[in-house]
Design a protein that fits this description.
The complex is a heterodimer.
Chain A (H helix, E strand, L loop, with lengths): L3 E4 L2 E4 L5 E7 L7 E6 L6 E5 L3 E2 L7 E6 L2 E6 L9 E6 L11 E5 L1
Parallel strand pairs in A: 2-10
Antiparallel strand pairs in A: 1-3, 3-8, 4-5, 4-9, 5-6, 7-8, 9-10
Chain B lengths: L2 E5 L3 E2 L5 E8 L8 E6 L6 E6 L8 E3 L7 E6 L4 E6 L8 E7 L9 E5 L2
Parallel strand pairs in B: 2-10
Antiparallel strand pairs in B: 1-3, 3-8, 4-5, 4-9, 5-6, 7-8, 9-10
The chains are: A mainly beta, B mainly beta.
Amino acid sequence: DIQLTQSPSSLSASVGDRVTITCRASQDISNNLVWLQQKPGKAPEALIYAASTLHTGVPSKFSGSGSGTDFILTISSLQPEDFATYYCQHYNTYPYTFGQGTRLETK
Amino acid sequence: EVQVVDSGGALVKPGESLRLSCAASGFNFTNAWMGWVRQAPGKGLEWVCRIKSKTDGGTTDYTAPVQGRFTISRDDSKRTVYLQMNSLKSEDTAIYYCATVLGEGWGQGTLVTVSS
């Protein structure tokens, strides 16, 4: 199975900050990667697919990059509603797997 | 607007069966690859199974812990995906989400609790 490793596991930041989260795959997954946001007690919501394409309605402050094994999620100008847990997930070959998550907390 | 509504979760005893349903709208369901993701209490996400679109062969795949016990199916005329879960175990306890593979639609989740 392809393993996804996210870093950092947790991150403290302030409103207005710009943050980056990385996701490394154990083998080449091309650009077959989704980024998701999950708030406590809620279902995940996908932000980005194909590593860098925003889903409809997702603010442009979210951006994704990367291909192959290394990927980055960038969130610019953090707002209170952005503090959540973020996951990467590949869909290159089944079984699809998720990273362990990055908890973004307010400093 | 994309909508995915999953349902059917319940409290069941080990060894019993349960069927989850997922009704979707607002996107091209016929061409969508669909699946079920679960999240055990306080844990991360696990992709349980996936079904391709019929035009892509309708192939199903399962994660190892549920292989042979769970069956995913779809009815494109009803825009619905099903998850038949047999021989349930305590470790299957989780919130189950129906989702598109590319993520444009996620259900709100339905809780399955397996306990004697």
